[in-house]
Amino acid sequence: MAVTAARSAPGSSRIASSSAVQEVAATTSRTGLTVRAELDSGEHPTGIRISDDEIAALPITRHRFHGDWNYTIHPQRPTDTATTTSTQDEALADRPARLTQRSLQDPELTGMTRQQLNELIDMLTPAMEIQREQVLRTRRGHERLVAPGTGAKPKLTSADRVLATVLHLRRLATMDLLGQLFSTTAMTISRAAKDVRPLLDAHGVHIPASTARFRTPTDIERFLDLDKNKIKPTC
User: Fold this and answer.
1) Residue 60: strand, helix, or coil
2) Could you tell me whether strands 34-36 and 71-73 are parallel, antiparallel, or unpaired per DSSP bridges?
3) CA nearest 156: which of 135, 122, 130, 128?
4) How far is residue 45 from each of residues 9, 42, 48, 56, 188, measured CA to CA in Å?
5) Strand, helix or coil at 34?
6) Considering the entire predicted model, what is its pTM?
7) Burial, 227: exposed, middle or buried (Cβ in 10 Å; 0-12, 13-18, 19+)?
8) What residues are paired with 35 via a beta bridge?
9) Average pLDDT per run of 10 along the chain, which is 235 residues long?
10) Is-contact 218 93, C-beta < 8 A?
11) What does the alpha-carbon distance between residue 86 and residue 78 come to, in Å, rounded to a whole number?
């Protein structure tokens, strides 16, 4: 089996580079591996930065282990095909319709089982209701004049607020993306996280950060679809 190694760009010492190339080329294995290496003497500009928008536009599927480092880049469509279907694809990529609350509760995203998440929601809901009443009373400047449950409904349910906070603390997505997923604004998500975090701390609940990072709803869909098709080890 033969492997062609990536070319080595010239460094400050051409002799050192040549030595490194020779070491790479000398690599062998018992099964017949051979390596061909050569020095690339071309000019390679440094300091080039790729924007988040450019990264988000790539057809990437992030891997389960350290998805921020390990991922698969899929081939692009031919130009003519992309031109005729671009509008349809953009519409599909921008809509998070398939990402229901249940899919956002997936253990791969939350870092806990669905039962654990439900227990966390049940534990925090009474405190969140008291918290909400205190905020409303402060805004009104007096006690409630109508029965609880009447009037304007909150933009997020208690379950949504806990789930959004968990996903935020997992560092899976930006506030803007979480706003898309919950059909609200980044400010509403930020406010929910600000309210829920002290309650988590009071109950001694720590939400560990994930290694996965998502920039679009499509990233999350691909991540969850990958999990469904993956053959998991039995041990």
Assistant:
1) strand
2) unpaired
3) 128
4) 11, 10, 7, 23, 43
5) strand
6) 0.55
7) middle
8) 3
9) 48 62 84 83 78 69 68 63 44 55 93 95 88 62 57 78 96 93 93 92 93 88 67 43
10) yes
11) 11
Reduce the DSSP state of residue 181 to 3 states and report it: helix
Amino acid type, 15: I
For the record, the structure tokens of 51 come out as 């924007």
Structural contact between residues 167 and 109, judged by C-beta atoms closer than 8 angstroms: yes
* Residue carrying the six token digits 């980044």: 186
* C-alpha–C-alpha distance, residues 88 and 94, integer Å: 10
Query: Cα 179–66–107 angle (5° rounding)?
Result: 55
Q: Which residues contact 24 (CB under 8 A, 6 or more apart)?
A: 5, 8, 35, 37
User: Token digits for 227?
Assistant: 């999990």
